[in-house]
Design brief:
This protein is mainly β and about 150 residues long. The chain has a single domain, classed as Immunoglobulin-like (Sandwich), CATH 2.60.40.790. Helix content is about 10%, strand content about 35%. The strands form two sheets. A four-stranded antiparallel beta sheet has the order 1-6-5-4, with no helix packed on it. Strands 2-3-8-7 form a four-stranded antiparallel beta sheet, with no helix packed on it. A hairpin with a 2-residue loop joins strand 2 and strand 3. About 10% of the residues have low confidence. Pfam families: HSP20.
Length: about 150
């Protein structure tokens, strides 16, 4: 269902985990937008963790089979504050998913609760398993009597 994600983002994440470093100038930006993706019945569900992001600061775009999620975590303090510790990343970040042809991208539903953006993408009718009837004349069969 999910074709692929950004391999460079994953490589950067793994590098940061192994060496405990980050790319210069990017430590204040989120390296990833954590997600879970799974199939539930007749839907493909994708959940993104977006703690501290207002609902109006999230943009969803789809072009062909590419879904782009863009979010902005804005400061919660005023300009007259002298920050002592700032570990919560701020700014704009995004993630792209390449969706397979088996998904109905015309009917995506989005819900945002408790810092989690949940997308429900229906499985396309053409991709659902279906039974194929076999035509043939039952009357053409001859009964064999013993």
């Amino acid at each position: 269902m999910l074709m692929r994600t950004d391999p460079f983002r994953e490589l950067d994440r793994l590098t940061q985990q192994m060496f405990g470093t980050s790319t210069p100038g990017t430590w204040s930006k989120p390296a990833t937008m954590p997600m879970d993706a799974y199939r539930e019945g007749e839907e493909f569900v994708v959940c993104f963790d977006l703690p501290g992001v207002a609902a109006d600061a999230i943009e969803l775009d789809i072009e062909r089979n590419v879904l782009t999620v863009k979010a902005e975590r804005r400061p919660t303090t005023g300009n007259d504050v002298q920050m002592q510790v700032s570990e919560r990343p701020l700014g704009v970040f995004s993630r792209q998913l390449f969706l397979g042809e088996a998904l109905d991208t015309e009917h995506i539903a989005a819900d945002y609760q408790a810092g989690v953006l949940t997308l429900r993408i229906p499985i396309a009718e053409k991709a659902k398993p279906r039974r194929i009837s076999i035509s043939g004349a039952e009357s053409d069969r001859k009964e064999i009597q013993a």
